[in-house]
Design a protein that fits this description.
This protein has 3 domains: 1-34; 36-93, Arc Repressor Mutant, subunit A; 98-136. It has 6 helices and 2 strands; from the N terminus they run H-H-H-H-H-E-E-H. The chain has helices at residues 2-13, 17-33, 40-54, 62-72, 79-93, 105-136; strands at residues 95-98, 101-104. The radius of gyration is 27 Å and the shape is elongated.
Length: 137
């Protein structure tokens, strides 16, 4: 279907309406025999179910989810749409709630590490200064 659609758009851009019309007509005939495509809501629900069934918790496990999703949704959704929906829903499942704002775990972890490093460096700076002030008195 995608190839026929691309061919029709190329023929149209090159002012070959006769070839574009034949591609569109063939595409319409083929479309009648293909299974109905899932809507975005149906695709998202199916992907969420597959993610929970496989127990995937990160994008590292996307391959496991994609293998199951590709088999279950074959012919009813494009691979690109399935992949985008899997990425979106795995990332959403792994966000943490912090301060009223959703922050991915990695960003939250980086913020914590940065604050600890900052206080560690501040402490390493202040100890000699405070020791020096104590010696002077």
């Amino acid at each position: 279907m995608k190839q026929r659609n691309d061919s029709a758009s190329i023929y149209s851009s090159q002012n070959r309406a006769d070839l574009a019309e034949s591609e569109i007509a063939q595409m319409n005939v083929i479309r009648e025999f293909l299974p109905a495509q899932l809507s975005l809501e149906e695709l998202e629900a199916a992907v969420k179910e597959i993610i929970s069934a496989t127990g995937a918790t990160s994008l590292k496990e996307m391959g496991k989810v994609m293998s199951v999703a590709s088999r279950q949704l074959a012919g009813r959704a494009e691979g690109r749409a399935i992949s985008e929906m899997v990425k979106k829903n795995i990332v959403v499942a792994n966000e943490s709630f912090y301060g009223g704002v959703y922050i991915p775990f990695s960003a939250f972890y980086q913020a914590c590490c940065f604050s600890w490093l900052f206080f560690l460096q501040l402490f390493q700076f202040l100890v000699p200064v405070l020791s020096f002030i104590k010696i002077i008195r």
